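Record type: monomer structure entry
Structure origin: computed from sequence
Chain ID: A
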Amino acid sequence: MHFRSKTAFAVAVASLAAVPGVASAATKSVDMGTPLSAQKAIQKAGSDANAFFPSSISVHVGDKVKFVPTGFHTVELLGKGAKPTPLLSPNGQLTAEKDAAGADFWFNGQPQIGFTPSLLAGLYGKSVSYNGSKTIQSGLPLANKPKPFTVTMKKAGTFTYLCTVHTGMKGTIKVVAKSKPVPSAKADAKRVAAQAAAAIKVAKGLAATKPPANTVSVGGAGAGGVESYSFFPSSLTVAAGTTVTFTMAKASYEVHTATTGPGDPEKDPKSYLGALAASVNSPAFDSAAIYPSDVPGAPAALTTTSHGNGFWNSGALDSASATAQLPSSNAVTFAAPGTYQFYCMIHPFMHGTVTVK
């Protein structure tokens, strides 16, 4: 941008800064996930932040809020009396799911699970209005480069919005009369920078996650929605006959699995585990990727030939109370020596190893 007079520009900036709220833009932005400027630093720590940046924002009635997709998140502003849209829902019934040995999986007869259909149609690239009466749901950001969407706030009040993908991730919009001051865009930017710096600090600390003996934490979690996408410990050695519990971090907003079997889902997408992980990106998941591989209850005995190919899956795990239908942990007994490679079917770059002697 070119200015004819730097002096005149400087005077204008100074005068605006002296009157809080006057400099407020008609449109303010919220990042749906870690800001792009902070992603390199937080990802270097093996983490990300399931949070909105800034987590709260103030605007005038009639102003717009632009939601910018920077991660796999949604925005849902609930209507009066409405409940949050579930991320997953049944879309059929399983009938003939078999393992590699040709035996029926126990979950035949259970619902086929996939994304809730209404989440497949999004608002990205669109503009809508919100007054608190009807729900606004962004939908899942399934496009390669989803565009921001804009919400015009039509009514004064404080409104909480949610992420459908990560239960517990939320933000607030305070809408005030035009006569009242709101923080400037510069002040909002400072809050985003401070929030991002705090998230990076938490991410670095998660490397020290240390669960109890014979326990593997599937991911780590800290304040501000910060998640570490690692198994803790990443390498565990146990004696044959040992039962190991795979558990979610208590503060996690994520859903993970702990899954072992043939193939590296990242390097070999056509392998057994690669195909399971790939299905989670489709509207209807392969049920072996989401359901526990063995009947819930007593720990299954795992060997290198379980289910015909050494397969065991914890099933989807979630520590969030709002998704109580999912367990927060699952355990397995390592019944035979060997080296067992574990991955998350939802985040297949997560990798851990259990060596059994």
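Annotation 1: The first strand starts at residue 27 and ends at 32.
Annotation 2: Confidence is low (pLDDT under 50) at residues 1-25.
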